[in-house]
Amino acid sequence: MSRATIVAREIDVAALMAEAQSSEFGAVSVFVGTVRDVNDGRGVTAIDYSAYTSMAESELASIVSEAEVRFGVGAILVEHRVGALAIGDVSVAIVAAHAHRAPALDCTRYVIEEIKQRVPIWKREHYTDGTREWIDPTTSRGIATA
Amino acid sequence: MSTVTVQLFASYAESFGGSTLEIPLAPHSTVGDVVESIRSLPGAFFLPKSLRVAVNRKFASADQLVDPTDELALIPPVAGG
């Protein structure tokens, strides 16, 4: 079982875990990304996530397919949220299930690292001083816009 | 001469002030030719030296041929997670 989706609602991590679990799996690995209140020393109040949704879901599906082959996981579910997120909100959840822990753990790590490299999703941080910037991981600073 | 529509997202859409660009397309044009045309537009100075382009929702190389019906997109540095 595999599924990878861009969603514009809250991510229900417990529901994803329940969906992935099966009596044949001894390990369910979960990675959850959340919005933190500081980045690069600046206070963050919120983040807007946006995506090129059709390509993002296509790339996520490719990553999930690669992960299934690479780690032999029995179930892998991925949801990435877009829209206006508050501090503490879940932005991404990855759930991988396998008979044993090592492939499940390796799978979640692989998927989040690939998401950060190739899935067209962007985030604009809002700061405590009232400014906002698009985050550019290829530079040390973001891109200031009006 | 035909044109191709290029989708813009995030910081690129804000910097260009719109969600698409219409770029003239000569026969046998490549992704690299389209990028060159975009770089010549007023206000394109902000674009990085290395520019990622998607054709029909897949990352494309500079030598890939472009058809007017293709779905092109400029992909700003991704920041998911």
Please explain how this structure is put together.
- The complex is a heterodimer of chains A (146) and B (81).
- By secondary structure, chain A is of the alpha+beta class.
- Chain A is 31% helix and 40% strand.
- Chain A has a single domain, classed as Aldehyde Oxidoreductase, domain 3.
- Chain A is elongated, with a radius of gyration of 16 Å.
- Chain B has 2 helices and 5 strands.
- In chain B, strand 3 (52-55) and strand 4 (58-60) form a beta hairpin.
- The A-B interface holds A 33, 49-52, 54-56, 58, 80, 91-92, 112, 115-124, 134-139, 143, 145-146 and B 7, 9-11, 14-15, 46, 48, 54, 57-59, 73, 75-81.
Defining traits:
heterodimer, A: 146 residues, alpha+beta, Aldehyde Oxidoreductase, domain 3, six-stranded antiparallel beta sheet, four-stranded mixed beta sheet, 3 helices, B: 81 residues, Ubiquitin-like (UB roll), five-stranded mixed beta sheet, 5 strands, 28% strand
Q: Helices and strands in order, then pairings?
A:
The complex is a heterodimer of chains A (146) and B (81).
Chain A: E1 2-7, H1 13-20, E2 27-34, E3 38-39, E4 42-51, H2 53-71, E5 75-81, E6 83-86, E7 90-98, H3 101-118, E8 121-127, E9 132-134, E10 143-144
Parallel strand pairs in A: 1-5
Antiparallel strand pairs in A: 2-7, 3-4, 4-6, 4-8, 5-7, 8-9, 9-10
Chain B: E1 2-7, H1 10-16, E2 20-25, H2 31-39, E3 52-55, E4 58-60, E5 72-75
Parallel strand pairs in B: 1-5
Antiparallel strand pairs in B: 1-2, 3-4, 3-5
The DSSP helix count of chain A reads: 3
The CATH architecture of chain A comes to Alpha-Beta Complex
Strand order of the largest sheet of chain B: 2-1-5-3-4
Whole-number count of domains of chain B: 1
Series of secondary-structure elements of chain A, N-terminal to C-terminal: EHEEEHEEEHEEE
Helical segment tally of chain B?
Answer: 2
CATH class of chain A: Alpha Beta
N-to-C span of chain B: 41 Å
| CATH superfamily annotation of chain B | Beta-grasp domain
Q: Whole-Å distance between the termini of chain A? A: 44 Å
Specify the CATH class of chain B.
Answer: Alpha Beta
CATH architecture of chain B: Roll
Query: From the alpha-carbon coordinates, what is the Rg of chain B to the nearest angstrom?
Result: 12 Å
The H-and-E topology of chain B, N to C, reads as EHEHEEE
Mean pLDDT of chain B: 96
Shape of chain A: elongated
